Amino acid sequence: MRKSEEKYYLVREEILPEAILKTVEAKQLLESGEAETVHEAVERVGLSRSAYYKYKDGIFPFNAMMREMIITISLELEHRSGVLSRVLTFVAGKGGNVLTINQTIPLQGIANLAMSIDTSVLNLSITDFAEELQKLDGVRKATVVGRG
User: Fold this and answer.
1) 80-94 residue pLDDT tens
2) Residue in 109, 103, 69 with CA at minimum distance from that of residue 85
């Protein structure tokens, strides 16, 4: 095995060391806003900050790992005021987080746009997301062109 190759294991919770479980708890407190700082989160769960920093980038709830996904979507937009704004409002309203946007200069009244979107907390399927996006006023076409 090469050094750069990562290995992953699926492990039952009850066999994990307490420090790893408390790291997950602390991360959940931070993500939910119940704790504002790492110091506050680790204090609440009874974990040292050094243990938290040791494990935080290596432990994730299984369902979170499975849900994390970035999609790239290609759109054809009519060159009218407010169309891109409607698209961005739609994405945010469905729980998507826009990571990148690349839009061409409109030709013959149509602008091509490529967007990378973090869909880890999307509140509908990616297929439904793309179908609903295509129904927005001013969106001629919406196609998922990549998933990662």
Assistant:
1) 999 999 999 999 999
2) 103
